[in-house]
Amino acid sequence: MGEGSRRSPAAIGAAALFGLGLLLVLSRAFLFDLRTLATSSMAPNLAQGDLLLVWRLGRPEPGDIVLLRLDGDAERYLKRVVAVEGERVELTDGALRVDGVEAVEGAAEEERVCGPGGARQSTVVTEARGSHRWKAVPGGRDVFAETVPAGHVYVLGDHRPRSKDSRTWGPIPVDDIVGVVVHRWPRGAPCDGPSE
Q1: How do residues 42-98 score in pLDDT, each as one tens digit?
Q2: Fewest C-beta in 10 Å: which of 91, 106, 170, 182?
Q3: Which class for 42: exposed (0-12), middle (13-18), buried (19 or more C-beta within 10 A)?
Q4: Cα pseudo-dihedral 172, 174, 179, 184, rounded to 10
Q5: For residues 178 and 127, what is the distance between their CA atoms, to the nearest angstrom?
Q6: Topology of the domain comprising 33-185
């Protein structure tokens, strides 16, 4: 190899950094997204200001938190999938049932939950679907036995009284789901901001 064809360590380093940068940009565009939670509709599990890693590949399962976009809406929303196609979802007096099976485990508890204006004592229940378990603040509008159509999911916010979700929008097309939250980094002051 001749002297003219050798690359300097600086050129190799610059090429490696460029390649790494390009890989990160492409990964962000096609594989993952980073989102900051802007509302309190997912309290008590996620706090306003949390940084979330959203994986863009795969189909959501019951219990997953998903990032979704509604057709014709520039906003992105974070909600929990509580039922998938073919399942019958019902929400009566704060109790979530899917295919007639109650998702609530154990007794309700009183807990401080953050939201607009600070933390308040709220009734909190533990819900479960498959291997997922989460806390929810019951309330808001009831749902009377709705079957999720093919190619759709039913989503709810964990803080039901503060959440716009499938009770307002109806079942969400799977194609409107941007990805599934796979990691959370707690940040910021969780007790301020708007509800959604």
Answers
A1: 989 888 888 999 998 878 999 999 999 988 778 889 999 999 999 999 998 888 999
A2: 106
A3: buried
A4: 40
A5: 24
A6: Umud Fragment, subunit A (2.10.109)
Position 50: which residue type? D
Helix or strand run (H / E) with residue 58: none
Please state the pTM of the whole predicted model.
0.81
Query: φ, ψ for residue 46 (rounded to 5)?
Result: -120, 140
Q: Which are the contacts of 53, defined by CB distance < 8 A and separation ≥ 6?
A: 32, 33, 34, 181, 182, 183, 184, 185
- Rounded to 5 degrees, what angle do the CA atoms 130, 136, 140 make? 120
Cα-flanking dihedrals φ and ψ of residue 135, to 5°? -95, 145
Residue 16 CA, distance from chain mean position: 34
Residue 56 falls in which region: left (phi positive, over 0), alpha (psi -120 to 50) or beta: alpha
Instruction: Report which DSSP code applies to 188.
Output: S
DSSP 107: E
